[in-house]
Design a protein that fits this description.
With 452 residues, the protein is mainly α. Helix content is 75%, strand content 0%. It has 18 helices and no strands. The longest helix is centred in the middle third of the chain and has 37 residues.
Length: 452
């Protein structure tokens, strides 16, 4: 009989998962995009990082409140199910298992390979990068499937490692920039490049990927010791810390090199900044930490990705739940769910390459799978927050009314920002989204074992 997942993780691992998944790739990957989106307007870029962080904290706080009341399997799915209903819970679970987790995991596998290639001077979209991305994806899967406890310890270790380059750049880069005047120059400088659309909204959407991932921590609530206490603490402490370190890091980068140099540097912009402040050798060493931090993020996302189909099967929902709810007797891992998770991640990695890194393979259906699934999940939070207003009996005024309203406003802001900045790409993405979700509902009861 399936006894459920083992309670193997503590508060430290939960905080490390929040911080470790969020920090690691997006802050390096999207810093240059924010700068380009704002045309080199540093104050506007800092505002974008602040607004993106505010959205994350507002949403995370609401789920922290829910985490004190509900504990089943795969946190966010629990909250969708308890607040809105079982059908919406399944809708959410299918989306997370087939789109969100594998799409995010695949992009971070490539980002990890991208920075490894930058370190070695290789093409970030060439065969080296894609081969490495595939290797990192499979390696992360094997680690989580064979030794989940070791994967948890790796998450804590890489979280500590990834804070090192951010903290050093935040402190040393700021001091460096104040001494040589670059920081003041960048703050006072005018827009140095033409921008299209609404630069602030485009920049905020760019920060969405950098701030995303914290929700994945809720996927281990069934494996978390004293989850009703530890998960809320992890969500609040972790997200607030991330906002602070991101904004300080962004200021530190502005003190390292001129905005024009960062913008022209492209994918090597961060390496140029580190090498300028810490010398060529020191910059290379710190950039190794950047690669490690990306791999830590990949590990955390894969940890969530491997549990996607299990979250449905544990509720006797989705295709063939009797297959996907099986746990390995030695590792206590959902083996079949893990295999499906890595397969979907590989499919999304193929799509990301064909849609974003080479001549378009999919025509008009080419969109950025590192951003649009994130905007979708913010839209899907809104019904949950609205039902919290109705069903949050026993909560104080702030937790029942004010916090959910802030969550609705924050989520709505991200959706509007995406519509304004991304335009027609959203339409084609929604078509793909609708097809995948229809398949999910068609398979909701497929292959269920009949009970007498």
């Amino acid at each position: 009989m399936n006894q459920g997942l083992e309670k193997r993780y503590g508060l430290l691992t939960a905080i490390a998962m929040v911080v470790g998944i969020v920090i690691g790739s997006g802050v390096f990957f999207k810093a240059e995009k924010v700068l380009v989106a704002t045309g080199g307007n540093l104050p506007q870029g800092i505002l974008a990082w602040f607004l993106g962080g505010l959205v994350m904290v507002a949403c995370a706080y609401n789920f922290a409140v829910m985490a004190t009341r509900y504990e089943k399997v795969s946190g966010i799915v629990d909250y969708a199910e308890m607040m809105v209903g079982s059908k919406y819970g399944y809708f959410f679970a299918w989306f997370m298992a087939t789109i969100y987790f594998p799409a995010m995991t695949s992009v971070v596998a490539w980002v990890s390979a991208r920075y490894f290639c930058v370190l070695l001077g290789w093409d970030i979209a060439g065969p080296q990068a894609m081969t490495l991305a595939s290797l990192f994806l499979v390696g992360s899967y094997v680690l989580n499937a064979i030794s989940p406890k070791l994967a948890g310890k790796l998450q804590v270790t890489t979280t500590v490692i990834k804070i090192i380059p951010l903290a050093l750049m935040a402190v040393v880069g700021t001091i460096f920039g104040l001494k040589n005047g670059i920081l003041i120059e960048n703050f006072n400088g005018a827009v140095i490049a033409d921008v299209q659309g609404n630069p602030l909204f485009t920049a905020v959407v760019g920060t969405a990927f950098a701030y995303e991932g914290w929700i994945c921590a809720t996927s281990i609530n069934a494996e978390l010791k004293d989850a009703k206490r530890n998960l809320p603490l992890a969500l609040v402490i972790g997200t607030v810390f991330v906002v602070c370190i991101y904004m300080l890091y962004y200021v530190g980068l502005a003190g390292a090199v001129e905005n024009s140099v960062m913008m022209e540097g492209g994918e090597a912009g961060a390496k140029i900044a580190f090498s300028t402040v810490f010398t060529q050798a020191g910059g290379a060493l710190l950039f190794v930490f950047v690669v490690i931090s990306c791999l830590g993020t990949l590990n955390g996302l894969m940890l969530a990705c491997t549990r996607g189909f299990y979250a449905m099967a544990a509720r006797n929902e989705g295709p063939k739940p009797h297959i996907f709810n099986g746990l390995d007797k030695v590792t206590n891992m959902p083996t079949n769910s893990s295999a499906m998770g890595v397969l979907l991640a590989a499919i999304w990695l193929t799509y990301f390459y064909g849609a974003n890194l080479t001549e378009p393979w999919f025509g008009a259906f080419c969109f950025d799978s590192s951003e649009l699934p994130i905007i979708t999940i913010y839209a899907m939070y809104i019904p949950i927050f609205l039902m919290q207003l109705k069903r949050g009996t026993g909560l104080g005024v702030f937790n029942r009314y004010i916090a959910p309203l802030l969550g609705v406003v924050a989520s709505g802001f991200m959706v509007i920002a995406a519509i304004v900045s991304l335009g027609k790409a959203i339409v084609y993405y929604l078509i793909v989204f609708a097809v995948i979700m229809c398949i999910g509902f068609a398979l909701k009861n497929y292959g269920h074992e009949k009970t007498e």
